[in-house]
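Hi U.,

Before I forget, here's the chain from the pilot set. I'm dumping it here mostly so it's searchable later in email.
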Amino acid sequence: MNRRAKIIATLGPASEDKKTIKNLLTAGIDVARINFSHGDLESHTRVIQTLRETARELNRPITILQDLSGPKIRTGEIKSGKINLVQGKQLILTTDDILGTEEIVSVNYPDLPQNAEVGGRILLDDGKLELSVKEIKGSQVVTEVVQGGVLKPRKGVNLPGTNLTIRTLTEKDLVDLKFGLAHDIDVLALSYVRSANDIERLREEIKKINPDQSGIPIIAKLEHPEAIENLHEIIHAADGVMVARGDLGIEMPPESVPIIQKRIIAVANKHLSFVIIATQMLESMVNNPRPTRAEASDVANAVLDGCDAVMLSGETAIGKFPVKTVQMMASIIQQSEDHSDEWGHSYFDPTEDAIHDNAVSITRAARELAHDRSVSAIAVFTRSGRTARLMSKARPRVPILAFTPVEKTYQYLSMLWGTTPCLIPQAASIEEMLSHVDTEVIEGTQVKPGQEIVLIAGFPIDKMVPPNLALLHTVKSR
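Structure:
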């Protein structure tokens, strides 16, 4: 596979059966996202088991990403299943647990009356419906419909420009977190992150549940203006960030989102942090077998700007064409990367702090050596996955082959840009390490005997030390 940017696909009712999962893996997904805003723990258990089982049958890794639902504010249940909001009419939002009607609808956020402001806006259903706050009395917020339409139960509620008094980790998230760790998920995504404290609290909760899993990678979802203000500290605290353009485009003017996206990609790459672009990338393929030209351009520009991964949400979770959507995304990525030398903006320019990290220096040296000698690949030996991630962020022009004896790391490596994971026995010497390389490279990649690769590892080989060795190796026949 020549494609380097990775594909994250959300699983849901349209893609949870074994046949579809197998087809999605064959089509090229690298990461399976399980959205804990939907479904129940029983169905999530079945999906995780099917993913692992199918990946083993195909002899390939799959990274499982657990997306914690976070403090999403939603409307409650509605008596008739839906109501029609008419422009100019009054609608009361209440924190009381009631069955909604055309006059009054419940909201699952107790502090709504304290956070709403007279004259302020409230958006419903991803911004499709707009209300203007007229009065606040007790548990009720009295509004006037500015932009009407159909409102169904459990639709999102946004208060643009308001700093909500809300905790990022909910009680539901903590239950889901225990479940995810018990089922050995590979990566966590935390919703509604506003500061580094949110990431630190999640790490503390992980340590309480299982200290052995405290190093699990955490992706911070950027969905609020406060997160953009605290971007640098969040990137330092997390292992990666997701540009969650759905809520971000509601909380901020839509016209500002493209520039914010480019800025986040640039800052994340400078700090050697993983970055995902998400939401509505191929949205029209929920119902259609082909994307719009604008959507194809959106995916291509995210790749050319240097993101690590692009994500599909409803397209694969509830769409009519989940497999075809993944195939289309893979094709767009490949076309974009074929012209990255001409139009791409991804380059290796780490921060001053990163430059003084010996592991970064080794990966940078390996990149330059690979380019100078026109080698076929860069082989990385890693236990935690960190060296492979740093090598990935260096953006070499050749494939990265990441060798690890740790199965957990093997699963996670599938997520890294330009990286092919290889599960091998622990090597005790350089000679044994090179033997593993020769065997795996010839059997599992396009590298041929007689071709050169750059290899980086920590020496002594049998110790857990940061990378301090880079060498040229000619692949030998086995």
